[in-house]
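Field reference: sequence -> structure
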Amino acid sequence: MSAFYARETTGGTTLIVQNGDHGKINFEYGAWPTLENADFFNNVKQDLIAQKASFVEADLSGMTMRVYKDGILSVEVPVGSKGREGSWWETPAGLYKIESKEKSHYSSFGHVYMPWSMQFQGNFFIHGWPYYPSGDPVAQGYSGGCIRLADENAESVYNLVKVGMPVLVYKRSFIAEAEDIKYSPKSVVHNDGVSYIAADLKNNFVFAENLSSKEHPIASITKLVTALVSVEYINVEHEITINRSMLASTSIPRLQPGTKVSVLDLLSLLLEESSNEAAIAIKSFLGAGRFVDLMNKKTAAIGMKHSHFSDASGVLATNTASPNDLFMLAKYLYYNRSFVLHMSMGTEKRGAYNPSRYATLSNFNKIPWLEGLIGAKVAKSSAAKEGMLAVFEMNINGTTRPVAIIVLGSNNAKRDIEALFKYVRSNFAIQ
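Structure field:
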């Protein structure tokens, strides 16, 4: 499952890199999950070096940053800190570019100044040691998800990079921990008209599939993508003033005109109760057109090559994807944005953030009788019928494996998820 990307060039020069199928594709920017496989990352890196490209390499496993000038290593410095894995501010691995440079950037996210600042993705920057307006430096453990360097190292990197330069952000979390894990042969469970896939997120082994490339309206599964775009482009502490234009037909109306609600609280409504009002409020911050454009760019960049989005709530039937597309989404969430999965189940720990504005929420995603469900999103509409994306940490003969089960076009999605869950548990063992 290799991703497709919109064509883009750097400084008028087209760079060619390897794709996941041992072929060649044009260099593109965006979150690229296959870069998190060490071998593939090294292949891309060597392709850039061979073409004498200038680029930045951020190894988040080795906590090292390197800058290459015309394919030759110019500077290597230690990374001081990164966003904590599994947190709201986890630093996103992938292939990006330097969007902007400022010698001193004021962060509205952290309310601090960031010296030698280089933006590479939404809210994420490479920068030196942040300090408060008083001049006091931030504490050692402080992080908003950016890649932090010592000031002198950040200045060295800043002086070498140019706007538009590729940035390879890499970590090892996509490497299959046990390449020798093998399952019994793949089987197919037939269910006419229902599209589904059940597969291991770590090694991509498919346990069962049917019409898995068929595109369907996905209704409220859309809201997982809405959450992704929100946290990469909006400060979750930002409060949005609710107005009447944000009120809409939704499962459980909770928003009142004139009140201020944080993006974090809106995300709880969005993911747990599938609030259409929360989706409208969130997209209003960036504007509906820009927000939907970012949704389509994000999904294309993570390999959802047959997906399309027209709104942030999933109300429109033109929000479509295939089970294979949604497997890529589940994989990205599991390894890069796991807090979205936990929030969908109401289990995300807020840490330093204020307690939820909404003490008791209904959660439409839970299947209490199935163990190991760590994240899910249900969908239901006249066009979509029923659908569900579910991620399990499943015990398969004593070994815990991350397994995604996705069902679209169903008459009873939770029943079909349960059937596939039991099928995997009963028919597969690790050899």
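Note: The longest strand covers residues 385-396.
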